[in-house]
Amino acid sequence: MQYVLKLGGSLLTDKKEEATISQNFSQIIEKVAENPDGVIIHGAGSYGHPPAKKHGLASGSRKGVLETHRAIKKLNEKIVDELRDRGIKPMPVHPLSMSYRDSETRIMLEHLEKMVQEGFTPVLHGDGIVTEGKGFTVLSGDEILAKIEEKFQTRRAGFCTSVPGVLDQHGEIIEEIDSMENFQDQGTRGVDVSGGMKGKLQEIFDHRIDAEIFGEKDLEKFLEGEKVGTWVRGS
User: Fold this and answer.
1) CB neighbours (10 Å) of residue 103?
2) Which of 81, 115, 136, 183 is close enough to 120 for a disulfide, judged by CB 3.0 to 4.6 Å?
3) Is residue 226 a contact partner of residue 21, using CB atoms and an 8 Å limit?
């Protein structure tokens, strides 16, 4: 397992149009297919966020879980099919069936490493997670990445987003950040129930991992092992 990569839903989908892939979808997947020896997580984008928001899944709900999961699964299938068409051996992995939350989030991750060792590329996604006392809540792709990196320590964890990195108040990339103190939330475009940039940073610091946050233009460089975007030191 050479890397753990989260592809943002805002890159893969048009968040202004429900259940619509982005114009750059195939181009992004093609770059991943050139370097498949890792674990891929993708956001829910315009597939999963609208039903999750509709049913209040972020704060806990016993309604809309299946609707949300099925919507995200459709996006997952598109990504898996696109990778397969490029000669990769992707394997869909649905967190709904391998996770639960009580006082902490528990995800069964052991089999991911075996999948990679056998030549497969696991493709996970943000999902609903059964939660003690609340029915279901949102398990974001950001938290999934943090959990995977915390366990396997690849030292190559990356969030590919719709912005080129963590930005300061002038819109410039912050090259390195080691706390939330230097972060000013620039907001989120479209519907997002998973926390946006603030949520990514919080997961990094909470799980004490190091990660890179970068834009689509740097995806190929990240996959080739270069440092790109913002280096977030959470360890």
Assistant:
1) 6
2) 115
3) no
